[in-house]
Amino acid sequence: MQWNLEVVPVTVDDVDRAKAFYSDQVGFRLDLDVRVGEEMRIVQLTPPGSHSSIQLRVGSTRLHGLQLVVDDVDVARGELAERGVDVSPVTHFEDGIRREGRGGDWNSFVFFDDLDGNSWVVQERPSTA
Fold this sequence. Notes:
Elements: E1 7-12, H1 15-26, E2 29-35, E3 41-46, E4 53-58, E5 64-70, H2 73-82, E6 91-94, E7 97-100, E8 109-113, E9 119-124
């Protein structure tokens, strides 16, 4: 049996503001925005090429270290910055310390937070070519 993690709930203060941030600035695809009652709204977005989505909901618990994996961290950083996301420079870890610049395989990252303090890591996967 295969088990897939396909939806991660992300709590925010304002669903409309977060929806705009993730779709317009980060570039996630809006999959669903429906009300299923007076108190419940489902807003689901998916990163480009991903099989997993996020679902926005009002709440105060924040997530730290949500991770996206990309083929080219420089291109991903450029796209985020171009869309107005406050994204870190490309960094790597050396002796447990975060340093600016690219690292080896699986060791090149950029970081950003959404408008509510949920934090994201974008990691470059090694080339398979």
